Amino acid sequence: MAALLGLRALRRLCSVALFLSQLYVLSGRAGSLMTTKHSQPQSTFAKSLTSTSTNTPYFKAAESTEIPSYVTKCPSNGLCSRLPPDCMTCNTNYSCIYGNPATFDCRVKPHVHCVDQNNHEQENFTINMTCQFCWQLATTDYVCTNSTNCMTVSCPRQRYNATCTVRDHIHCLGNRVFPKMLYCNWTGGYKWSTALALSITLGGFGADRFYLGQWREGLGKLFSFGGLGIWTLIDVLLIGVGYVGPADGSLYI
């Protein structure tokens, strides 16, 4: 009888142990499922951030809106045929006959807007010009650098190397900036009329030479009383014809 009671107690203990083990297993599965559900969105979000930061930038770079420098020279909505050469690209024909009229096909550059005679916007147009290179233009069609180092009053007359640039409204073939040898032609502000008047009135005291910046000659005339009048008469003649000029080598105004 005692053995039967012990066997029943053992069975109950086994049932309780089995129930507790099943409960433990079920609680472990539920916890793993909860952990998976909560961690999956986080991993997906992390992947999305990783792929975004690795492959493509999160913020797109702003498109360049820089306007080319030549646009400032191009009048807006003006006639295309009157645009400066820097505002267009032309198919120049270097086989044209020098001095004869020539027609070239042109196209406006980006960011440039122009119209035709009927006020219609256009991109392709033609221009008429004379067939000649830029360095063959008239002196009034380009601007050159000036030199203040060469002597304008000399024999033979001195030249200097200048850099010339064609004016904006002039069309020509070749480079629009070119070197050229020019005669010295600059002034220091001395007036020919003032120098001549001083030579006639106060030339015996060297006033004309002092005015022109020739201090040595002026002192010589001053202490010799104009070379007893002979030097004074000679200077009147030389300044009158323009042979004697400013000491810095410039021209009279």
UniProtKB/TrEMBL annotation:
<feature type="signal peptide">
    <location>
        <begin position="1"/>
        <end position="28"/>
    </location>
</feature>
<keyword id="KW-0732">Signal</keyword>
<keyword id="KW-1133">Transmembrane helix</keyword>
<dbReference type="Pfam" id="PF05154">
    <property type="entry name" value="TM2"/>
</dbReference>
<feature type="domain" description="TM2">
    <location>
        <begin position="189"/>
        <end position="236"/>
    </location>
</feature>
<comment type="similarity">
    <text>Belongs to the TM2 family.</text>
</comment>
<feature type="transmembrane region" description="Helical">
    <location>
        <begin position="222"/>
        <end position="244"/>
    </location>
</feature>
<dbReference type="InterPro" id="IPR007829">
    <property type="entry name" value="TM2"/>
</dbReference>
<keyword id="KW-0325">Glycoprotein</keyword>
<dbReference type="GO" id="GO:0016020">
    <property type="term" value="C:membrane"/>
</dbReference>
<keyword id="KW-0472">Membrane</keyword>
<keyword id="KW-0812">Transmembrane</keyword>
<protein>
    <recommendedName>
        <fullName>TM2 domain-containing protein 3</fullName>
    </recommendedName>
</protein>
<dbReference type="InterPro" id="IPR050932">
    <property type="entry name" value="TM2D1-3-like"/>
</dbReference>
